[in-house]
Amino acid sequence: KEVIDALMEEDKVIQGTVKKITSYGMFVDVGGIDGLVHYNEISYKGPVNPSKLYKEGDVVNVKAISYDKDKRHLSLSIKAVQSDPWQEVEEALEEGDTITVTVSNIEPYGIFVDLGNDIEGFLHISEITWDKNIKHPKDYLTVGQEIDVEVIEINSKTHKLRVSYKRLQPKPFEEFTKKFKEGDVVTGTITSLTDFGAFVKVGGVEGLLHNQDLSWDKNVKCKETLTVGDEIEVKIAKINVDDEKISLNRKSLEESPIDQFATNHKMNEVVQATVRDVKDFGVFVSLEGGVDALIRNEDLYPLIAEELEIGQTIEAAILVIDAKRDRIRLSVKKLERLNDQKMLDEINDNDAHSLGDLIKDQLK
């Protein structure tokens, strides 16, 4: 009992000899009594494998931290002999500081880095690179590599130090805005496909190519026509600096079907149209070159929407060509008026000829 009382004296440093090493710690002989140094009490780094640091017969300095009288179990600590390095870290470092560390261990979820003095920091996978498609930390850093990192969190109570590697690297979006502007035509690599479009990497930054901006054909979808890994030429449609988002456009690199239609046709021209869909407000029809047009109900007379069939061919006059808004409107009623006007003009021409012939006869 006297020996135990002596060992338990506050802050007393005891010299002992490593007697046995296990997976959960090591037994140390102190004055003929065996005590256990649990692996949590070896280093301020946290749980460590004692066999990597010590061997049987090694002499170590320890402190007694508890004694279970019933079990006659003596608990010892090696780290209690040392000054708490976390207090020094909290005093010496601030969030935002840049420090040099050594990569000590790499896991799928992040990297452990060594600051020295039994202090280990954690570099989460999300803080390694600005690339959101990172698969594994080992693709970017290696064990033993010295790197500069930024301190982003210090908690001496929980012994946690979080650092960031990417925050000391140039931000790809900022570099992108220095190099490119809206309207530039660039070549990118397709990184992923979704139901609403495709993500394309350009200059280290991903932009979104929405389905509606892929092709003038509204039925074409990115997921059905593109392949991950392929290169694609696109135009930078919009750069949103606040949200750090980039919108891309593919179809604007080609002349729109409506522009082509406008080049080949003029207002009031009569065209053949195929009924594609009937709505409450009018009828959608297809024209040559895959162009769609609308005939509103008020422009459909004398035809009746309910009597039309999908696929039926009708004639109508061009009423509006709005290339900017990607719209064409036709009118059957306008066609009727044009036909009536044509008929009237022919009658007037015939009347004029008849009157001229009559005058000529009288002058003979």
Automatic annotation (TrEMBL):
Keyword presence, Amino-acid biosynthesis: no
A GO BP annotation: translation
One Pfam family it belongs to: S1
Signal peptide: none
A GO cellular component annotation in the UniProt record: cytosolic small ribosomal subunit
Entry's Gene Ontology molecular function annotations: mRNA binding; structural constituent of ribosome
Keywords on record: Ribonucleoprotein, Ribosomal protein
Gene3D superfamilies: Nucleic acid-binding proteins
InterPro entries in alphabetical order: NA-bd_OB-fold, Ribos_protein_bS1-like, S1_domain
Annotated ranges, domain S1 motif: 11-79, 96-166, 183-251, 268-333
Family: Belongs to the bacterial ribosomal protein bS1 family.
Function: Binds mRNA; thus facilitating recognition of the initiation point. It is needed to translate mRNA with a short Shine-Dalgarno (SD) purine-rich sequence.
Protein name, entry field: 30S ribosomal protein S1
Lineage of the species this protein comes from: Bacteria, Pseudomonadati, Campylobacterota, Epsilonproteobacteria, Campylobacterales
